[in-house]
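Deviations from the work plan: none for this task. Representative record:
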Amino acid sequence: EAGVTQFPSHSVIEKGQTVTLRCDPISGHDNLYWYRRVMGKEIKFLLHFVKESKQDESGMPNNRFLAERTGGTYSTLKVQPAELEDSGVYFCASSQADRGTEQYFGPGTRLTVT
Amino acid sequence: AQSVAQPEDQVNVAEGNPLTVKCTYSVSGNPYLFWYVQYPNRGLQFLLKYITGDNLVKGSYGFEAEFNKSQTSFHLKKPSALVSDSALYFCAVNPWETGANNLFFGTGTRLTVIP
């Protein structure tokens, strides 16, 4: 069974540019989560999809971040325009059910904004 | 506010010795508790979880964790450390009673097992 995949693995962009991160969850997992880890700090929740619907987007930092999940399959996270403080590692996770079940994480996308 | 504390950024232990990675939490209600491990250039891997029942939970790779409700702690343990256990360990909680499905993480503890 393929795990959660994320693309790209690394991205270096200049302040003001746009970047789109992609996540492919494990097949059949209705729940998809985005998290972010800024250097040395805790991993913070961004948002949660159930199928194609946003269940909880309370962790999204501001309106420069836009997440979508087309047809309830893969998800994209767009940052536009990127700021320096957006740098970090963005993790995607998926799970079959919601609370109480473990989430399976992708390898992350390291975003550097210069 | 929900928070998870991993008081040690770094833990060093000799191979063959027991190891403990500490985690305490300040979360509403009776959360679900998790440990994840991250190896270099890999995603977080699930190790174990506590939902209910026995306070000692056994997980992957010989790890176990002890839930202590009065101390709001969930320390990760292993009786005999291996060099291959060297990695970054994250404690996480899910305060499900608040309606949240997401995880709140600690800042991580880097474990180094010395041969």
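The CA atoms of residues 56 and 92 of chain A lie 15 Å apart.
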